[in-house]
Amino acid sequence: MDVLQLDVSGRPQAWITTREAAVIYASDGVAWTLGHPCQTLRGGLQRVTGRQSRIEVHPIIAVRGAVPSRAWRQAPALTNSKLFVRDRFVCAYCGHHCMPEDLTREHIQPTSRGGADTWMNCITACKACNGRKGNRLPEEARMSLLYLPYVPSLHEDMILRGRRILADQMEFLLASVPRNSRLHG
Fold first, then answer.
1. Percent of the chain clearing pLDDT 70 (strictly above)
2. Phi, psi of 43 (to 5 degrees)
3. Cross-sheet strand order for the sheet of 30-34
4. Which residues contact 44 (CB under 8 A, 6 or more apart)?
5. Could you write out the DSSP letters of every residue in 79-143?
6. Which of 25-34, 124-133, 174-183 has the lowest mean pLDDT?
7. Which PANTHER family match (predicted)?
8. Could you give the CA distance from residue 15 to residue 159 in angstroms, rounded to a whole number?
């Protein structure tokens, strides 16, 4: 289980392990938390009291101070796995729901014709439709898009990364995802 790390203002920063979160707790770096503790880590015995140290890790932690972040980028990194989740494993041309191994990253404007490898030029297509479209524009191939591409927000990107997300984490992230996002459906 991973912990959702935020900056002090609540902006998602990264998914971290519970051990990485424990280091932040131990160094008094946690500003605030959300959710019920999801794991308890136990340490050694205190010499004076004989009590065992323990840290209760919450599913969402906000870290004090400035945290270097990739989250300030304009657009999240594009990967096939995130693209397929964004598009719900549905081919943009035929509408069939497919297994990941039967899908491809389809460039609406082919890269060989100047198309960029970006969120706004890429959609999910089954291998058959991708092969049928070939090196043409959708209108040239007489294939229309069933849905339009979009650039995921920072909160959507954290969901698209394909981790096992706890209910508290999903509730927090979805609260900032636009209502028209496919992730709500």
1. 94
2. -115, -150
3. 12-17, 2-7, 60-63, 30-34
4. 52, 53
5. -HHHHHHHTTTB-TTT--B--GGGEEEEESS-GGGT--SSGGGEEEEEHHHHHHHTTS-TTTTT-
6. 174-183
7. OS07G0170200 PROTEIN, SLL1193 PROTEIN
8. 10
